[in-house]
Amino acid sequence: MPASLPSSSLTVGVLGGMGPDATLDFMAKVLAATPAGSDQDHVHMLIDHNPHVPDRTQAILGQAGAPGPVLANMAKQLQDAGADFIVMPCNTAHAFQSDIEAVLDVPFVSIIEETAAACSDFEAVGLLATRGCLASGIYDAALSVAGVRAVLPDDVETQTFMELTASIKGGDSGSEIGAGMLRLADALIARGAEAVIAGCTEIPLVLEQSMLDVPLISSTDILADATVAYALGDKELNPLTTRLKV
Description:
The chain is an alpha/beta fold. It has 2 domains: 12-111 and 222-232, 3-Layer(aba) Sandwich (Rossmann fold), CATH 3.40.50; 113-219, Rossmann fold. 42% of the residues lie in helices and 12% in strands. It is built from 10 helices and 8 strands. The strands form 2 sheets. The chain has a 4-stranded parallel sheet with strand order 2-1-3-4, sandwiched between helices. The protein has a 4-stranded parallel sheet with strand order 6-5-7-8, with helices on both faces. Helix 5 (111-117) packs parallel to helix 7 (138-145) and helix 5 (111-117) packs across helix 10 (219-232). The radius of gyration is 18 Å and the shape is globular. The chain starts with 11 loop residues before the first strand and ends in a 14-residue tail after the last helix. Residues 1-5 and 239-246 have low confidence and may be disordered.
């Protein structure tokens, strides 16, 4: 039987709802990654599941109001409710990370930084992400720090990706959507990608490792694993801002 979690395990605040199915997938992966043998062994998560956050891509492209203030308010409420650190299983929303961190006294764990760090063994990785995420350059910057070259989709491929993710958000995660996502991944591989980042948390709902001939780097899985590791103390958060329970 797995060992019980330490009594000093941390409480996780989750900025969720972007989109709803992706948040549920993240939560399920946190549960699966936790060495638990009973209810009491699982990580304590405080979740603001808010699907009404303004559209992140539209905001980045100047077509909608900025979601930064909404995300910051959500994060502050989670902190005030007892969260020891904050995570957000939405890649594109990390373009507004500075708004979130400006109101926090606890750490914010970036899905972008965690995923980029996981790519350090590769020279070039493909990136499947929303138009807003690509336009923001947040992955380019993080991968550059890791010494990795990003292989990006072209404009037509990006439009196809946006249509596929819209279908997923609309409840269609069928085989045709998965096949379309696979074609996009294969196009990046054909241009030299040694692995493919699922840089949108809707992607793992339709695309699995077994479908690819190269590693699929799921940002959802990486953030879930990191969340458990930070909560259990296997990875260290900033000690100046972590409020460890005793």
